[in-house]
Design brief:
- Among the domains are: about 15-50, no CATH class; about 60-140, DNA polymerase, domain 1; about 170-305, Orthogonal Bundle (hpI Integrase, Chain A), CATH 1.10.443.
- The radius of gyration is 28 Å and the shape is globular.
- It has helices at about 15-20, 30-50, 60-75, 80-95, 105-115, 120-140, 170-185, 190-205, 210-215, 250-265, 285-300, 310-320, 325-330, 335-340, 350-355, and strands at about 20-25, 25-30, 220, 225-230, 245-250.
- Strands 3-4-5 form a three-stranded antiparallel sheet, with no helix packed on it. The protein has a two-stranded antiparallel ribbon with strand order 1-2.
- Helices cover about 50% and strands about 5% of the residues.
- The protein is mostly helical.
Length: about 375
C-alpha cells in the first residue's frame, strides 16, 4: 500500500502465458494443476521483485504499450505473425512521428503509407492487424480518447475477385517443364528440380499450404496409416493454424509417388524438401513461390498466385465435382466454411446441367407442340 492508501495492481501474466507452455513440439496446453503451479511461481517471482525494488515499471507511453502488445503476441503466435505485427508497429509509429497519442489523422496517414507499396487486400490486412492492437489495448484498460471508446479503423472497400486457378493444360505444362529439367544430365541444381516436383505433386494431391510443405519432416509422413501430420516446427517457426495438430489424408496416387520418392532418398535426409544431407533445401518458404513464379513467367501464365494457386485449384475442382463443401472445408482445414466457398472459381462450374433439369411443370414445352407459339410475332 502506498502513502495515500492506494493499493497498486500488478499483472502476473497474460492468460495465454498461463494456459500454454513452450516445448520442443511448440505450444502445449498446461493441465489445471500445472496452471496453478505456474501462477504460484509467477506470484513468488513478482513478489521478490517488488520487495527488492527491481520490478520493472511498465512504460505507459504509446510506444511502450505497443511493445507490451508485441511481447504478448510473442508468447503464443508464430515468428511470421510476430514479424508482421512488428512491421505494423514500425509503420504506424513512423506516421505518428513525435505525437504522443494516436489521432484520426494518423490512421489516414497509415493507410496512405501502406497504399504506396501494397495492394488493397494487403492494406486491409495491415489495418486489421493494427485494429488487433487497439482491441487488445481496450481489453487491458488502455484508452486513447477521453470517452474511453474502443478505437475502430476503417478498411478499404475492395471489389471481391475470384480466386485465380490453374487450368489442366497449365498444370500439365508446368509438370512437363519440371520433368524436362529432371531428364537433363545431372547437375548441382538437380536437387532443386527434385524438390520442385515434390512440391508440385504434394500440393496438387492434398491442397496443403506453402508453409506446411516447407516445414514438413519425413517422420510426419505415415504411408501405412495414410496420413500426413501437420504440426508446429521449432526450426522454421511454423505454427499450425488453429493451434491444433492436423492430419492430411494420403490418396493412392500420392502413396505411390511417396513410396518411390522415399526409396530413392539417402538415409541422412530428414525433411520432405531436403538438400540430400539432412538439412532444408530452402531456408525460407518464400523461395518455393519464387521457383514456381519462374515457371509462370516462362509459360505466360498470369492471374494465378504461384503456389497458393495450386491450393485454390484443388479446392475449386473438388467443389465443381460436387463434393460436399463441408468435406472440402475439412480437407482444406478452414475454420469458416465461407473461406472454402470463396476459393471456388465459378468459371470451372458448368451451368448447362442445371438448366437441363428445369421443366415447365404441368405444361408442354413449346418445341413439343405441332405449331410452336412465337411470342415475338405479335410485336412485329
Amino acid at each position: 500500500m502506498e502513502e495515500d492508501g492506494y493499493i497498486p495492481k500488478r499483472d502476473l501474466a497474460t492468460v495465454q502465458e498461463v494456459l500454454y507452455k513452450r516445448t520442443a513440439r511448440g505450444l502445449v496446453k498446461r493441465s489445471k494443476v500445472e496452471q496453478a503451479h505456474e501462477l504460484d511461481r509467477l506470484y513468488v517471482k513478482k513478489l521478490e521483485r517488488i520487495k527488492s525494488g527491481t520490478e520493472k515499471k511498465p512504460d505507459e507511453s504509446f510506444s511502450g504499450i505497443m511493445q507490451e502488445w508485441l511481447d504478448y503476441v510473442e508468447s503464443f503466435r508464430d515468428v511470421k505473425t510476430l514479424k508482421t505485427y512488428q512491421r505494423v508497429r514500425d509503420i504506424f509509429m513512423n506516421v505518428m512521428k513525435a505525437d504522443p497519442v494516436p489521432e484520426s489523422k494518423h490512421f489516414t496517414r497509415y493507410t496512405e503509407e501502406l497504399k504506396k507499396t501494397m495492394g488493397d487486400n494487403s492494406v486491409n490486412s495491415y489495418i486489421r492487424s493494427l485494429q488487433a492492437f487497439f482491441g487488445w489495448a481496450h481489453e487491458q484498460g488502455r484508452y486513447f480518447n477521453e470517452d474511453r471508446r474502443k478505437v475502430k479503423l476503417n478498411t478499404l472497400r475492395v471489389t471481391t475477385k475470384e480466386m485465380g486457378v490453374y487450368t489442366d493444360e497449365q498444370l500439365g505444362t508446368i509438370r512437363e517443364r519440371i520433368q524436362a529439367k529432371l531428364d537433363e544430365p545431372k547437375t548441382v541444381k538437380r536437387q532443386g528440380w527434385v524438390n520442385e516436383m515434390r512440391v508440385f505433386v504434394l500440393v496438387n494431391l492434398t491442397g496443403m499450404r506453402r508453409a506446411e510443405i516447407h516445414s514438413l519432416k519425413l517422420d510426419d509422413i505415415n504411408i501405412g496409416q495414410s496420413h500426413i501430420k501437420i504440426k508446429d516446427c521449432e526450426v522454421t517457426g511454423f505454427k499450425v493454424k488453429g493451434r491444433r495438430e492436423e492430419r492430411v489424408p494420403i490418396s493412392n496416387d500420392l502413396a505411390s509417388f511417396l513410396v518411390d520418392d522415399l526409396t530413392a532418398r539417402s538415409q541422412d535426409e530428414k525433411w520432405f524438401l531436403d538438400n540430400g544431407k539432412g538439412a532444408m533445401y530452402w531456408q525460407s518458404e518464400i523461395e518455393l513461390s519464387k521457383r514456381f513464379k519462374k515457371h509462370q513467367v516462362a509459360l505466360g501464365i498470369e492471374g494465378v498466385k504461384p503456389l497458393h494457386g495450386f491450393r485454390a485449384t484443388v479446392c475449386t475442382k473438388l467443389l465443381a465435382q460436387g463434393i460436399s463443401p463441408v468435406i472440402v472445408q475439412k480437407l482444406m482445414r478452414h475454420r469458416d466454411i465461407n473461406t472454402t466457398l470463396r476459393y471456388l472459381n465459378t468459371s470451372f462450374v458448368s451451368t448447362q446441367e442445371a438448366v437441363e433439369g428445369l421443366t415447365l411443370s404441368g405444361h408442354q414445352v413449346a418445341t413439343n407442340l405441332k405449331k410452336p407459339h412465337n411470342p415475338l410475332k405479335k410485336l412485329a
